[in-house]
Each structure stands twice: as structure tokens, then as C-alpha cells.
């Protein structure tokens, strides 16, 4: 079994001492318990804290776990209206700790795991969700050419290539037949909307628990986990938020299904979409069910990969991976329902 839970702090200390200005050991590494893809560690030193994010060691799916892309996009976004951690260093030499990694600033703030935000005031809940909406709109208004990301993703139909990519990834990590997923894979290309000319930066996994907020306020301090980012179509990110909210509330689903949103000061799906459209100057969005179905499909492919890594012994959090892996059929069924709405 490949070890993803520990870090060779001696090797990290030696490397950072040579390559990171101002760095001084000793280092204590503490693994974050969130995230299923790229193991992430808090590096504690006497002077300050850092965060190290690495590829998992072992045999990986081609094009997955691209920490170099994560580093590049966050470095490019520095100075824009999209808040990101400060990037310090990228190491692509696998011989240092066994896989590529990068080091960034440790952003002190509040990581909100549940969108229901139990214990928050209604005003704070509304402000946090509105800030989430604002940052998403700002992300999709970044001039990709101006920040040096014009070549960050291929040209052409974003959904066409994403469906092809995630179908391939899903098949490569398939552990048992899922009839609903097979149907969804067959139906999505048939329902694809025509191109509308939008090509923006896309996060790929935009949700509240991939953000850091102020401890005592609603301002977003950093958007995290850029592994799936590319240039593509913005409605995939918007639909990703709505998809997450349709999940059950709690640790497993981290959604808002069954929650009385109005009573908690939370936006409805329609309010969130309308606010986003206002910020981007859009009149509305047609055929939103396709974008929602696409997000259910992609998330099903992602968690199938998580399950496969758990069974292969190189998941970042094996126990959690096995738990969420059983939800692949549910995501597929939800995707089919979204298509038919």
C-alpha cells in the first residue's frame, strides 16, 4: 500500500532551505483531513506556516493530479479580483519526496464545510453565499489572455471534450457496472447546447468548502483546489454549485436538500442564478438542466476514481474514499433526472 498520510519532512526541509527564500526549519507536517485527490499538508515552522500540496505517489490516471496546473493558475490570478493563496514554489522533481509538489501561503481564515452554516446568523449566511456568487462571477470575467492563461485549455467545445475526458477516466476506474451512468454517458452528447461563444476560466469544483472566508466576516480570502481548472464554459461552475445544494445535508452530502433555505436566509437556486446573471450582465440561461446533468456526470466520474484509488491503496483518505465511492449510482440517476427536467 502506498503511504499518502505522511511526508518526508527531512527531505522537504532540505529542499526548501535551498530553494525558498526566508525558509527556516525545523518542519512539523500535519495532513489536512479534507480533499480526496492531492494530499495536502500544513507545514509548521518556528517563523511561519506554509501549505504543501503534492501528487499522490504511485500509479495514477493520465492527466490527473496536475499540481503544476494548480500552481500556474493560482499564480496567474494573483492581483485579480479572484482571491487565491500566494504561490511560493513548484517542485516537479519526483526524487525529492516521491512526487511533484508545490508550496503556498497558509491562509488564516474560516473553512465552511456545510452550506447550511448551522450556528451562523441569517445575515451572515446570506452574505457568505452572496460573496460566493460574487467571486464566481469575477472568476468568469477574468481576461485569460491578460493573465497569461490563453493556452490553459484547448480550443473547441468544452462540454464535448469534458464528456469525452471523464468518460475515459470513468471507464479506466470502473469497478462494477452502473446502468444509470451508462445511460447518462450516452444521453449527454445528444442534449448538448450549441456553442454560445463564451470561453472563460473554469474552476471545475467550485463549492463553499473549497473556499476560505474571514473568521469574523463574509469576505472570501482564497479559493482552493484548482486541480480541475481549465478554460472552458462558465455555466459548468454555476451548475456545480446548484448540484452540490441538491445533495443531502450533512457530512456525506454537504448539500441543502430538505433545508428550509428561506428560514435560514439562504438563496434559492433561482436567486443564486439570477444574481450571477446580474453580475455578468446576462439576460438568463437556457437549458440549465444540461449543465446540471453534466456536473452530476463529472462528479460521478470523480468519485469513481476516488473509490478506485481507495481499493488500490493510494487514496488520500481511504476510509472516506470508500464511503463516498458508493454514491456513483446516485449521481448518475440525478444527472438523468436533471436532463429530463
From TrEMBL:
<dbReference type="InterPro" id="IPR002575">
    <property type="entry name" value="Aminoglycoside_PTrfase"/>
</dbReference>
<dbReference type="InterPro" id="IPR011009">
    <property type="entry name" value="Kinase-like_dom_sf"/>
</dbReference>
<protein>
    <submittedName>
        <fullName>Phosphotransferase family protein</fullName>
    </submittedName>
</protein>
<keyword id="KW-0808">Transferase</keyword>
<dbReference type="GO" id="GO:0016740">
    <property type="term" value="F:transferase activity"/>
</dbReference>
<feature type="domain" description="Aminoglycoside phosphotransferase">
    <location>
        <begin position="31"/>
        <end position="252"/>
    </location>
</feature>
<dbReference type="InterPro" id="IPR052898">
    <property type="entry name" value="ACAD10-like"/>
</dbReference>
<dbReference type="Pfam" id="PF01636">
    <property type="entry name" value="APH"/>
</dbReference>
<dbReference type="InterPro" id="IPR041726">
    <property type="entry name" value="ACAD10_11_N"/>
</dbReference>
